[in-house]
User: Which sequence fits this backbone?
């Protein structure tokens, strides 16, 4: 039998083809999800009292992530190579399609309660499928319905310039100034560590309320005195951690595409090294990245690119933790002996 011609290789440049996070396979029916890592967009910004636009972030961050997916015969690579550590990350996950893009939760505009119910349902289905949720907001209000989906006891690390611990006034309970107060009320939430708080808009009563619950608040001067490892030491050693990253924890010039950015924030390396320390020292069971606003960003989409890279780098360290590997063991298929290989007549039928 004549051999079938091999397909012509493609360049698959970043500006061609369909858009999914890292060009990962997609799954829009979460009841059939087969993945170790599930990327979920939550394009809701109805909780923003200032400049809206973070609803466009999941799509834009996906677009910028394709720059890191590898393309063509020269750039194509699985996972990514860290030159400082001289090693590769996410190679198994990319090679075996264990990262899946699940699209976006259904946003029901003007009906925040229904939107939040949809988010909680989607994250719960991801968890029921045994996958690790990576949530791309949206404004910071969406963190509450995400964490609400967890049924196991967890701790929360909250990176932000702001407390997000506002009391509920005039019926406002689901805005981006409320999520950590909402999360703190969940029975599953144990300890909360808030890192990067520095805004001149910080309310003294919010700080007092957070500390009265037992939460730790780490300001920028505190962080620079104590270093990344001190954040890890504030977390119970034997319990899992959920991480919420508001990009305004970074210094204002780094995140022009963020409506709530503030001066004197963390550098990118300070944030990434802290995330790496958390991933090494504790089992991370999910995270979100919020408050990127593509409508405010510079033409080069710097904030969205920064967000895409931060997600990829954090994931690369999370999957190295023994706790993650226990929940998501590597399943490398055995190679088929050459003598047993044959070309199926009908690929669709062969899979059945």
Assistant:
């Amino acid at each position: 039998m004549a051999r079938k011609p091999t397909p012509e290789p493609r360049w698959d440049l970043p500006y061609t083809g369909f858009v999914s996070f890292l060009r990962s396979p997609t799954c829009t029916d979460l009841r059939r999800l087969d993945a170790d890592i599930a990327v979920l967009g939550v394009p809701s910004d109805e909780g923003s009292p200032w400049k809206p636009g973070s609803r466009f972030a999941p799509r834009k961050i996906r677009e910028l992530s394709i720059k890191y997916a590898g393309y063509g015969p020269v750039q194509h690579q699985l996972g990514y190579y860290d030159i400082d550590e001289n090693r590769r990350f996410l190679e198994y996950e990319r090679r075996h399609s264990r990262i899946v893009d699940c699209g976006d939760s259904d946003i029901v505009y003007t009906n925040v309660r229904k939107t939040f119910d949809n988010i909680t349902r989607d994250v719960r289905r991801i968890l029921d499928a045994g996958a690790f949720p990576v949530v791309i907001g949206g404004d910071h209000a969406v963190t509450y319905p995400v964490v609400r989906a967890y049924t196991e006891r967890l701790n929360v690390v909250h990176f932000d310039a702001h407390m997000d611990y506002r009391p509920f006034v005039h019926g406002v309970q689901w805005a981006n100034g409320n999520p950590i107060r909402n999360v703190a009320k969940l029975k599953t939430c144990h300890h909360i560590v808030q890192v990067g708080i520095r805004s001149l808009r910080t309310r003294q009563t919010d700080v007092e309320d957070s500390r009265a619950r037992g939460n730790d608040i780490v300001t920028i001067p505190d962080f620079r005195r104590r270093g990344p490892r001190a954040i890890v030491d504030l977390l119970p050693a034997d319990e899992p951690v959920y991480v919420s990253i508001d990009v305004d924890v970074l210094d204002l010039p780094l995140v022009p595409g963020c409506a709530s950015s503030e001066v004197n924030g963390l550098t990118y390396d300070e944030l990434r090294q802290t995330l790496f320390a958390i991933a090494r020292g504790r089992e991370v069971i999910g995270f979100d990245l919020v408050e990127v606003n593509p409508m405010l960003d510079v033409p080069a989409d710097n904030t969205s690119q920064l967000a895409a890279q931060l997600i990829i780098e954090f994931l690369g360290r999370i999957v190295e933790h023994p706790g993650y590997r226990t929940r998501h063991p590597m399943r490398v298929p055995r190679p088929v002996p050459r003598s047993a290989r044959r070309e199926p007549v009908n690929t669709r039928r062969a899979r059945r």
In short: The mean pLDDT is 92. The beta strands are 37-42, 80-82, 87-89, 99-104, 132-137, 154-159, 189-197, 216-219, 241-246, 284-290. The first helix runs from residue 57 to 65.
